[in-house]
Each structure stands twice: as C-alpha cells, then as structure tokens.
C-alpha cells in the first residue's frame, strides 16, 4: 500500500489498487459508497499521488491542501448542486496544458450533486479522453449519474469498514477501548463519522436513544410526532460537533446535511438491529446487542419484529430519498407502535 494512504482507515484492497495505478491511471474514476466512508479522503490522496508521485513532497502537500495549480476541486454551487456552468468551465480547463505537473486532476467530492445537464456537458470530454487529464468523482451510487457518464468511469466501490478494524484504528488515534467500541457501533462502519465523533460524550447516549425507542412507541400520531422531534433535537449536538468550525457557510451547510444523514441512517440501523435481535432471540438465534435487557426483546412477536425491522429499513430508503425527515420518523414510530 502506498504511503499516501497511511492515515486512511480501512479499504486496504482499494488502496492497493490505486497505489498500483499512480503511474498509469485511467481517464476517470468514480468512487461510490455510503456517506462518511472516506471516498473524498481517498480521492484527494490519490490526486496528490497523481500530481506528486511517491517522491515530490511539495506537490503532494499542495494537493492535500487543495492548492496545487493542477488540481481543480469542484464543489456544488451554493448549498445544493453542481451546475452546467461549472461543468463547461471544467471542459475548457481540460484542454489547457498543466501548469506544473504532467497532468491536471479534476476532483468532484460531491459529484452526486451534479445536475443532469452538467453531467452531459462533461460527457464529450469523457468520450474523447486526453492523457493529461484525470477525473475523480465521488458519489453514493452510480445511479446518481446518467448511464453514459458512469459507464466511462472506472468504478471504485468503497464499503463500510469492519467494526474490529475501525475499533483498532480509533484506539491507535487515542480513544480508549470502550470509547472506540461505542463510537464504532454508532458510526456503522463509516470512518469519517467515527473520527468526527471521537471523545463526544453524547455518543453512548445516541445508541441508548435508538435502542429505547421500541419501548416508547405507540399508535397515536401525536406521540410519533413528539418522538420524531425529540430524536432530531437530541441528534443536533452530534451533528454540530462533527462539522469543522472553519468551513465556509455553504460548505458547512453541506457538511451538516451529510452528517445528519449519516447519523440518522446509523440510528435507524441500530433500531432495526433491536427488532432483528428480538426475532432472532425468540427463534433461538444469536443477537447483536448483548448488553440490553433480553426480556424486553420478547415484547413483540417474531413475526412483528421482522416486519418492524423491514419498516425501519424502508424508512432509511425514504430518508436517503430526501423526504421530510421528521415526517418519515413520525410515520415510522406510529407504525411501530400499531397493534399487531
């Protein structure tokens, strides 16, 4: 593995692949995976390697700080999307000779925010590759782009990091074992979120909050709405703590939105694990949350537990589809409390 990636948690096979391709990269790479798994971090370090190789420390340092003249980092306009005007600027810049390095690298850390018109504006450049240009795009899914664009990129899949590997990395960064295990459980295999949450006292309470929900749900819509508001209120401090304080307003807003999404998905996965444990325990199988009151897991029938876990995971899909989060949670909590 290249020393470029020494501070990256997990993703060993991906890092080995990228390290081997520094000298002869593909025209375009599409890094896909859940939020906060490290796509942007890995892409930026790969860009540094493309511009500075293994020996040019100055070039690598400039690239890692996004100040290298041959690295163009394209962020969404305002708080939402990458527009067609930005894409046209990229097309024009791609035809120019690099300033210092042997190539120009274009990095789109939030490429999923690209509009269809912007993606189509880039298509001609991707169809007629230039040896001196490399595109690095990061998004949650290939489906975020027109198929004609995604098909012209080498897709790099970045999954969640195994819990044991994440715990070891957090301990190496100064967390004690218990804290590391708590943070790893909350982050759901997302190293970026895990590092951001280190030494946050609210982390342990976050998991307890979601595991306590099955005992609180009721079929009354008003109760569901109150629970949803309470969950989002208790989520807010963790969201704010995970966003660096030195970001520009638009970038901070995007970071805040991504952090809230990651935390909500992690919380819902923890909730789903309670119902999965309930069904598994009553059918003689293993459980994931061994530290909770096992008697509480028999409060719902196995059939109800399975359907409830499915409902929670459906809510994850709705949250990721950018439906109103408070409404999704309120409807979910009411459905979980409905009579069997």
Core attributes:
340 residues; single chain; alpha/beta
Describe the SSE topology:
Blueprint (H helix, E strand, L loop, with lengths): L11 H9 L7 E5 L6 H14 L4 H8 L6 E3 L10 H11 L9 E5 L7 H12 L5 E7 L7 H4 L3 E4 L5 H10 L4 H11 L3 H7 L4 H11 L8 H21 L7 H34 L19 H19 L4 H12 L4
Parallel strand pairs: 1-4, 1-5, 2-3, 3-4
Question: Can you describe this structure?
Answer:
With 340 residues, the chain is an alpha/beta fold. Helices cover 54% and strands 7% of the residues. The model has no long low-confidence stretch (mean pLDDT 87). The chain is built from 14 helices and five strands. The protein is elongated. It has helices at residues 12-20, 39-52, 57-64, 84-94, 116-127, 147-150, 163-172, 177-187, 191-197, 202-212, 221-241, 249-282, 302-320, 325-336, and strands at 28-32, 71-73, 104-108, 133-139, 154-157.
């Amino acid at each position: 593995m290249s020393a470029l990636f020494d501070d990256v948690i997990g993703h060993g096979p991906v890092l080995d692949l990228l390290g081997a391709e520094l000298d002869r990269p593909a025209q375009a790479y599409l890094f896909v995976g859940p939020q906060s798994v490290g796509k942007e971090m890995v892409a930026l370090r790969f860009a540094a390697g493309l511009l500075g190789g293994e020996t040019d420390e100055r070039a690598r340092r400039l690239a890692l700080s996004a100040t290298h003249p041959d690295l163009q980092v394209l962020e969404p306009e305002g708080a939402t999307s990458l527009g067609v005007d930005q894409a046209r600027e990229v097309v024009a810049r791609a035809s120019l000779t690099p300033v210092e390095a042997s190539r120009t690298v274009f990095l789109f850390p939030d490429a999923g925010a690209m509009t269809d018109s912007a993606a189509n504006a880039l298509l001609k450049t991707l169809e007629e590759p230039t040896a001196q240009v490399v595109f690095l795009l990061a998004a949650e899914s290939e489906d975020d782009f027109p198929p004609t664009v995604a098909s012209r990129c080498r897709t790099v899949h970045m999954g969640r990091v195994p819990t044991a590997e994440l715990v070891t990395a957090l301990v190496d960064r100064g967390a004690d074992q218990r804290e590391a295990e708590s943070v790893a459980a909350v982050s759901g295999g997302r190293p970026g979120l895990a590092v951001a949450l280190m030494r946050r006292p609210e982390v342990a309470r976050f998991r307890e909050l979601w595991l306590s929900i099955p005992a609180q749900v009721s079929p009354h819509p008003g109760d569901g709405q109150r629970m949803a508001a309470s969950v989002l209120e208790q989520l807010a401090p963790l969201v704010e703590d995970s966003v660096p304080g030195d970001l520009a307003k638009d970038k901070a807003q995007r970071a805040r939105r991504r952090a809230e999404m990651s935390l909500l998905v992690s919380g819902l996965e923890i909730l789903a694990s309670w119902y999965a444990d309930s069904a598994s325990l009553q059918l003689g199988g293993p459980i994931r949350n061994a530290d909770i009151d096992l008697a509480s897991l028999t409060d719902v029938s196995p059939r109800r537990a399975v359907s409830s876990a499915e409902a929670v995971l459906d809510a994850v899909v709705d949250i990721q589809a950018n439906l109103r989060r408070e409404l999704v949670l309120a409807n979910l909590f009411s459905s979980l409390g409905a009579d069997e």
